Amino acid sequence: MLGGVDASIPEELVLPPLLRLDVEKASDEAIVNDVARLIAAYVRQLEFARDDGGAFVGSPFDLFLLRNDLPRRPRPGETPQKYSRRLARALDSLASPLFVADVDGPFAFHAQTFRFDAEELEGLRIFLREPLEAPNAPQGGVAPSGVGNCVACHPAPLFTDFGFHNTGVTQREYDAVHGGGAFAALEIPTRAERAADPNAFLPLTFRHPLATGRFRAAADAANAELADLGAWNVAFNPDFPHAQAPLRKALARSLGRNPGKDALLDAAIARFKTPGLRDLGHSNPYMHDGAFDTLEDVVGFYVGSSNAQRSGTLRNGAPELAGIQLSPADVAPLAAFLRSLNEDYE
């Protein structure tokens, strides 16, 4: 935007002086940086509705918790994981749930009914259920189902652990183009090899304008060297100095030990930051590559990726995936619960 203000622009859309820029005089770098600042300022002011005590109140799920006097936020010092387990136990004691209907809403900005009914409740139970809670396999050896283990990475009430996990999206995309097992065989450089020739392996930055970004790219049938390795592109990359400490801490925490730098870089392969699940209705298509249009597709994907993790065919897969045991009958209620996290936030 020019330094002056166009009188035709509505007052509520006029940028404050600190966010204005004369694009006729500014460099490309300055324009990109200012656009990033503008987007960050917009995102920071978006908040989900909360009450005076800090509990969320805007979604059908939140209203269901309130209506049934269920725990709505962690206690002081309680981790999200422990809160999620406390919520699961409280649900087990809920004999006559009071549901949420469209008259309690309705939604203004979502094409769905404002509701939390029996299907959503079943989806919530599946979402919260962890492997140790899995029912014994019935006679005949049929594997248990109804175990989402979703809280391993998406604990309530924010529904994210803010960590980095490989759910198999990159492998799915790569193998769909190059054939089953192709991603497992993909040659990925070591930390020393990458540092010796960053232009050949790392993403384009202002410090490396000639970098190929081959491992931050979508799979391409014409070039088997292209793949998206996610956090691997940032870990130990000096072009992203401010990201190093928190990323290494997150990777080390997920490994449960104090690994060396090479092990940390290997652990970063195909990992992406875990998103929050509130208001997914405004963020499709889903996954980092936009692979899925519906929540049912996403849940179905996890059925496949959890099987791949258990069979050892998912390269650097998140260990948490092995705890997922879902059947086709679990897909609809899980998707219904995820939709109950939508809200008309300001």
Structure in a nutshell:
With 346 residues, this protein is mainly alpha-helical. 35% of the residues lie in helices and 1% in strands. About 3% of the residues have low confidence.
Commentary on this structure:
The chain is mostly helical. It has twelve helices and two strands. Residues 134-142 have low confidence and may be disordered.
- Rg for CA atoms: 23 Å
Question: What's the mean pLDDT score?
Answer: 91
CATH fold type of the largest domain: Cytochrome Bc1 Complex, Chain D, domain 2
Low-confidence parts:
134-142
Principal-axis shape:
globular
List keywords for this structure.
346 residues, mainly alpha, Cytochrome Bc1 Complex, Chain D, domain 2, two-stranded antiparallel ribbon, 2 strands, globular
Topology (elements, then pairings):
Elements: H1 28-44, H2 60-67, H3 80-92, H4 118-128, E1 164-165, H5 169-178, H6 182-185, H7 191-196, H8 198-201, H9 244-255, H10 261-267, E2 272-273, H11 295-311, H12 328-339
Antiparallel strand pairs: 1-2
Helix pairs in contact: 4-12, 11-12
